[in-house]
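INFO batch 0412 | record 1 of 1 | parsing
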Amino acid sequence: MNQITVDKRSVVFVVSQHLYAGYCLVLFALLGMTVLVINLFLPSLRRRRLVAGVFSRAFLRAAGVSFTVHGIERLPRTPCVVVANHASYLDGVVAAAALPPDFAFVIKKEMVRVPIASMLLRRLGSEFVERFDRQKGAVDARRVLKLAASGQSLVFFPEGTFNEVRQIGNFLGGAFAIAARLKLPVVAAAIHGTRDVLPPGTLLMRRRPIRVEILAILDAREAKQHSRELIAQAVGEPLAP
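INFO prediction complete | emitting tokens
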């Protein structure tokens, strides 16, 4: 009898998890399309980013995900480069929800293959960079450098990608090279909880708290290793060898 009760509870739990995940997928699709349609008609880049931030926060709230931001007052009032850990497809949504509408996201070029997402990201002033072809990557880097030189702040996920291993991967150097070239401060930011809410390799979301923490403002010359160490310490994950 006890075994039957346990089995029933397990089935109910699995079904409820899948229903919740389906709800989140539909919610995300509807809100994403709404943001895209609105932003097609907004001429101001800042307003388009404001809309994206509002809808990102609305998605997390409607999904029942607790979301908090700590240390936002530490962000410089002048252009800067934010670097954050990358553990989930939710990280971009969370960063958009957390940061003011002054930031352009620098994103791996593979996202261009996702038509609706890439269209929305372009409307938000994002730049796509090639990670595997040096020549194309150099062209993309010059374009990002020009964007930063125009006064835009930038957001990078310098690990470049993520996987199931709980660790902070090696940081690519692009964010830090641009910051050093333009003498911009580097802001280390830690994203907590996205790996648990939407783990790599699945679309099944779970209700877990998410927190963004602005850790420190660093000089670009020392930021690559120092930011990685600060983020690893903050999220409690080891550095990849």
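INFO post-check: The longest strand covers residues 210-218.
INFO record closed
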